[in-house]
UniProtKB/TrEMBL annotation:
Single GO MF annotation: RNA binding
Pfam families (alphabetical): CSD2 (PF17876), OB_RNB (PF08206), RNB (PF00773), S1 (PF00575)
Annotated localization: Cytoplasm
Enzyme class: hydrolase
Gene3D superfamilies in alphabetical order: Nucleic acid-binding proteins (2.40.50.140)
Species this protein is from: Thermodesulfatator autotrophicus
Protein name listed in UniProt: Ribonuclease R
Every S1 motif domain range: 627-708
GO cellular component: cytosol
Catalytic reaction equation(s): Exonucleolytic cleavage in the 3'- to 5'-direction to yield nucleoside 5'-phosphates
Keyword line: Cytoplasm, Exonuclease, Hydrolase, Nuclease, RNA-binding
EC number(s) per entry: 3.1.13.1
Role this protein plays: 3'-5' exoribonuclease that releases 5'-nucleoside monophosphates and is involved in maturation of structured RNAs.
Homology family: Belongs to the RNR ribonuclease family. RNase R subfamily.
Gene behind this protein: rnr
Length: 715
């Protein structure tokens, strides 16, 4: 009888594909020891293999079932995905595999899972159009902390989450209240939400304070989005080793630009100055100097400062405050180009001809001195309004500012001619009173002085990106993919209801979008068209692959000009320093790929947090304006009413159908309008209306309007 041939032990761990293939071949759930045998795992590798299996189980690629067996989800009617919980209590599972259908989960089958959790669901009625299921395992909690309102009871206290996607109360034992007062806004941590419990138990980890206070609302956003807002001991220790001012030895070997009339131009309340500019007229054109704070000199790779900045990814700006990427010692002092002090900078020197074409570019590690801190409004008074008093006061800088204005006009004209998109959307500015509470929200003024800085920063970003690309240094590009044609088709159909007839382009082109913006300019619906067009675009991101920037339309583009508040800019600075010294690139492509994903995600989170903080301010303001009348435009139409964006104040609210007492209104979804059954009266996208603030729900952030009259239709 022939001897059975013994398998040779494999070298290295199996891949995920090999594990899945082996389990499919087995055709049943298997024990861990069976997997050792099937995949021929040697004893020396089994500990590492167990770790791999645990990771795959945590990710939902494998499922650990009773009897210590492992199975494949798809062979057991199991689906892994992200849970979305509706305010009414039911859940919808969005599967990780795109081809699988969304699964409906009744309220009683959530088994302690909450909105955003990554879960495994067993599908129990797969034949229905929308399958139903039950949560059998929570793989990953989406939320560590929940922001809510504290209510003290005689025996037990509760926290009611402010987010209505958490349709439950949290019980707080007497010894876990952390001194919270009735009605306080708090942060709770769930400590027990086991499948047998209908109501979770938790503890208070932070008392935020009075919900009517702006600082309380900002803290709520910080906790909700889990923004790191405290610097570690290691960071504080490193800060002590960094000098308070620029030392003489730090200036050694750098090009000295201190005699040039560099200036900073920023907003009235700015405290961190990333950039300074200087423009000189040449016989055949202009020379632009853009100096950017040399953060990389002080923040070395893999230090505590560097690691914490990377985790944050970006500074997050709220009304009256900021969660900075770097501590104040760097962001507001040593790495801020403050007036009349020496500062280390990376300096881009770019020559342009009379037509605004770039002729040459050079980059330096330099030392500069800002000779004046200008605000946008002062520059406007000097350049546009030609205010005699302002021009006398800043006579020393007149020539330089005139040069800057002339070059800006050329660069802007050239950029728009190549198809770069220039959205004219109002940016909100929150006005705070003496106590730091919101007083008003106004449209942030954008005038020619803003264009000067915008154009020069774009020029510097393009120049650095092209230089490092030519030199072969991998960097994080700022990329913006073209929109999907399907999205543009939706937009074209959408604006047709406004009377704007457009022909869909064969391929998405920035020039087509710019043409649409120009067509809508000056029309009552211009704001709406700009907003809808912006929503049809993809979001810009960071990537080591240069796939272009659709919105700005350059050959290649990166972020170089704000290393105080954006980590990708610091990455580019390090690459530029290495290139200037002919050293090896500081980052490999694989590392940059990972960084690009993380930093793009951090940017998205920051944008969402800033948007929500603004929404909270709007509600706080409107609570004190109940009964006031405003004009606005219908910005969205739904089955329950229509949304109105106000003109005078940067706020949006809803007119509900229940408050339209003159008729029964039916949604005409195709034409984005509500039509009265009896009267035939129409409310459609783009209509101008006059409304009164009816009521405001601060905790739910709802603003309800009452219709006074329809002013006119967009057509």
């Amino acid at each position: 009888m022939a001897k059975k041939k013994k398998k040779k032990p494999r070298v290295g761990l199996p891949t995920e594909k090999e594990i899945v293939a082996a389990m499919k071949k087995a055709g049943r759930p298997v024990l861990l020891r069976e997997l050792y045998h099937i995949l021929n795992i040697p004893t020396s590798d089994r500990k590492e293999f167990r770790t791999l299996v645990k990771r795959l189980t945590k990710e939902g690629k494998l499922v650990h079932i009773k009897g210590k067996r492992y199975g494949l989800p798809e062979q057991m009617q199991l689906i892994t995905g992200k849970l979305k919980v509706h305010p009414d209590g039911y859940g919808l599972l969005e599967p990780e595999e795109l081809k699988k259908p969304v699964v409906y989960i009744p309220p009683g089958r959530l088994k302690g899972a909450i909105n955003g959790d990554k879960v495994v669901v067993r599908v129990e009625t797969p034949t229905r159009k929308r399958p139903e299921g039950t949560v059998i395992r929570i793989l990953e909690r989406a939320k560590k902390y929940i922001v809510g309102f504290f209510y003290r009871g005689r025996r037990v206290s509760t926290v009611i989450p402010e987010d209505d996607r958490f349709p439950f109360e949290i019980l707080i034992p007497p010894d876990a209240t952390k001194g919270a007062e009735d009605g306080d806004m708090v942060v709770a941590e769930i400590v027990d939400f086991s499948p047998g419990r209908k109501i979770p138990e938790g503890r208070i980890i932070a008392v935020l304070g009075d919900p009517e206070d702006l600082s309380t609302q900002i803290k709520a956003v910080i906790y909700k989005y889990e923004l790191p807002f405290r610097f570690s001991r290691a960071v504080k220790k490193e800060l002590k080793e960094i000098p308070d001012e620029v030392r003489e030895e730090d200036k050694a070997g750098r090009k000295d630009f201190r005699k040039l009339l560099f200036v900073t131009i920023d907003g009235e309340t700015a405290k961190d100055f990333d950039d300074a500019i200087y423009v000189r007229k040449l016989p055949k054109g202009w020379r632009l100097y853009v100096a950017i704070a040399d953060v990389a000199h002080y923040v070395r790779p893999n230090t505590a400062l560097d690691k914490e900045a990377y985790e944050r990814g970006t500074s997050v700006y709220f009304p009256g405050t900021v969660v900075p990427m770097f501590p104040e010692k760097l962001s507001n002092n040593l790495c801020s180009l403050n007036p009349e002090v020496d500062r280390l900078a990376m300096v881009a020197v770019i020559d342009f001809d009379r037509e605004g074409n770039r002729r040459q570019m050079k980059f330096y590690e330099g030392v500069i001195k800002s000779h004046q801190r200008f605000t946008y409004n002062i520059v406007r008074d000097v350049i546009e309004k030609k205010d005699p008093q302002a021009r006398r006061k800043y006579k020393r800088f007149l020539g330089m500012l005139e040069n800057a204005a002339e070059l800006c006009r050329l660069l802007r004209q050239k950029r728009l001619a190549r198809g770069s998109i220039d959205f004219d959307l109002p940016e909100p500015e929150v006005i705070l009173d003496a106590q730091g509470q919101p007083e008003d929200i106004v449209r942030r003024e954008r005038h020619f002085a803003h264009f000067i800085i915008e154009e020069f920063m774009i020029a510097a970003n393009e120049a650095v990106a092209e230089y490092l690309t030519e030199k072969g240094y991998p960097i994080l590009y700022r990329v913006h993919e073209p929109p999907d044609l399907e999205k543009l088709k939706e937009f074209v159909d959408f604006v047709a209801t406004l009377g704007l007839e457009l022909k869909l382009p064969r391929e998405p082109e920035p020039s087509w979008l710019q043409m649409v913006i120009e067509m809508a300019e000056g029309k009552p619906y211009a704001y709406l068209v700009n907003t809808l067009l912006l929503r049809s675009l993809k979001q810009a991101k960071y990537s080591p692959e240069n796939i272009g920037h659709f919105g700005l339309a350059p050959e290649c583009y990166c972020h170089f000009t704000s290393p105080i508040r954006r980590y990708p800019d610091l990455v580019v600075h390090r690459a530029l320093k290495a290139a200037l010294k002919k050293k090896k690139p500081p980052y490999k492509l694989q590392k940059l790929e990972e960084m690009g994903k993380h930093l793009s995600e951090r940017e998205r989170i920051a944008m969402e947090a800033e948007r929500e903080a603004l929404d909270r301010v709007k509600v706080m303001l409107m609570k004190h304006r109940i009964g006031e009348v405003f004009d606005g435009v219908i910005s969205a139409v739904t089955a329950f009413g229509f949304f109105v964006d106000l003109f005078e104040i940067y706020v949006s609210g809803v007119v509900r159908l229940v408050d339209l007492a003159d008729d029964y209104y039916v949604l005409d979804e195709k034409n984005h309008r509500l039509v009265g059954r009896r009267t035939g009266k129409v409310f459609q996208l783009g209509d101008l209306v006059r409304v009164k603030v009816k009521d405001v729900n601060v905790s739910r952030r709802h603003i309800n309007f009452e219709l006074i009259e329809k002013i006119k239709s967009p057509n």
